[in-house]
Automatic annotation (TrEMBL):
UniProt name for this protein: DNA topoisomerase 2
Organism: Polarella glacialis
MF-aspect GO terms: ATP binding; DNA binding; DNA topoisomerase type II (double strand cut, ATP-hydrolyzing) activity
Lineage, top ranks: Eukaryota, Sar, Alveolata, Dinophyceae, Suessiales
Family matches, as PANTHER family: DNA TOPOISOMERASE 2, DNA TOPOISOMERASE/GYRASE
The keyword ATP-binding appears for this protein: yes
Subunit comment: Homodimer.
């Protein structure tokens, strides 16, 4: 079995020759290690907000790789084995936390917001979409529609509650795989692909929607 190691330096402008060993013993693995070039960044150390962002991204990777990747932070294995575990970091109470894997390409979660309006945490192909997008709308609309239909039945068809009123109480989580996703900018904060081009569908189960109805939203 062979081992391979290669190093890039100076903003990856300098590439060292690869080192290949023929006597490797152990499990197959891939490891990527980097050292920040602080002088190039005009820094003398990593500031607290940068460290916090890196820490957050470590948890994001653990959550979105669906258990296929062990993620260590400061030498410790992160106890996030699934997207459901990740949701639990945001919503501690299981009473108001509902999640499911619609299929191999979609994982979703629904909870109540903290009162500050609609909230979402979402990923497209493991890319953190901080402002959501059409994938979040796709899931949110299903939840809102189900709740409005239930309210209409309770009120005998007379309904003054608007979709936005319902949405403002929701906290939506989405982890999905999209074919050739389109974004609004280079930062990829918002996905703009039309749902017809997602390459898959995610129909929320009757069980999940019923659990949300009974949650008191």
């Amino acid at each position: 079995r062979r081992g391979y190691k290669q190093v890039w330096r100076s903003n990856m402008s300098i590439r060292e020759e690869p080192r290949v060993s023929t006597d490797y013993v152990g499990e197959d693995f891939t490891s990527v290690t980097f050292t920040p070039d602080l002088p190039r960044l005009g820094m003398v150390c990593l500031e607290d907000d940068i460290v916090s962002l890196m820490r957050r991204r470590a948890y994001d990777i653990a959550a979105t790789t669906r258990g296929r990747c062990k993620v260590y932070l400061d030498g410790e294995l992160l106890d996030v084995k699934s997207f459901e575990d990740y949701i639990g970091l945001f919503v501690g109470s299981e009473e108001f936390r509902f999640s499911e894997a619609c299929n191999s390409r979609w994982e979703v979660g629904v909870s109540l917001t903290d009162g500050s309006g609609f909230q979402q945490v979402s990923f497209v192909n493991s890319i953190y979409t901080s402002r959501g997008g059409t994938h979040v709308n796709y899931v949110t609309d299903q939840v809102v529609t189900a709740l409005l239909e239930d309210l209409a039945k309770q009120k005998g068809g007379t309904l003054t509650v608007k979709p936005q009123h319902v949405k403002s109480h929701l906290f939506i989580f989405v982890n999905c795989l999209i074919e050739n996703p389109a974004f609004d900018s280079q930062t990829k904060e918002t996905m703009t692909s039309k749902k017809e081009r997602f390459g898959s569908t995610c129909e929320l189960s009757a069980e999940l929607l019923q659990a949300v109805r009974e949650s008191g939203v």
